[in-house]
Fold this protein.
Amino acid sequence: MSRKRKTIVLAIGTVLTIWVLVGLLGRLFVPESMRERLEARRACRLCDLSGVDLRGADLSGADLVGTVLNETDLTGALLKGADLSRADVRYAHIQEAVLDGATWVNGKTCGADSIGRCLTADTQTLIASGHCPDCNLKSATLASLDLEGTFLNGANLSWASLSRTNFSGSNLTRANLTRAVARHTGFQKCLLREVDLTEANLTGSDFSEAYLRKTLLVNAVLIDAVLEKADLRQAVFHGAILTGARLSDADLSGVSLKMTDLSQADFSKANLSGANLLGATIDGATFTDAYMVGAIWVNGKRCKAGSIGRCYQ
């Protein structure tokens, strides 16, 4: 072999060696994306995948036990047979995701045709008949459904995804909705007596003329919620956020509003007799013609007779 030819061969070999080394070094110093790791390993127990783009990812059979999926985009993802036990999926985007055979958050198995939502036995019963008292619907995916007039007395809807669902005229007496996400949801004229809505996200939801007597709304988020003409007698709102909420003509007698944020809320013509507003924030709140006799004001002093529209102490 001529010297010139040898030189060319050596040069090519050197270039190829350098190219391989660069590739290997790149793999060492440029980490795999979360998506690549998930699709390759199909396991991510107790991971925080908040905000990760997993659109169309193949996660069939993946171990996602206890994973946080806050605003994770799983649109069109394949999750057949995946284990999502105890995962937080309340804010996940699962439109068109295939969940057939997956183990859902509550330990139930998603049935056939579970596309965009997990169809457990209880979920299918509710959707088909509108009658599911005492059902286990924990972490159910019921967003955007029309469930008007359903009977869910005593049902467990804790951690459920209920945003933009229509529950108007439904009976949810003594149901458990702790930490449920029900943004812009319709609860008009619902029976919600003694319901537990602790730490639920109810932003922009409509409770007009609903019956919420003795309901727990501790630390609930009710920003811009509508509670006009609602019966809220003896409800507990400790620490809740009602910024911009509309409560005109509502019955709030005996209600606990301690340490709540009532900024910009409208209490026009509401009945606040005996209500407790100790430590509440009332910046910009409206109390036009509200009946406040016997209420405990933000400073801990009781409103005297004649307290209409303002608290006389």
Residues 3-29 form the longest helix (27 residues). The domain at 40-119 is CATH 2.160.20.80 (Pectate Lyase C-like). The mean pLDDT is 91.
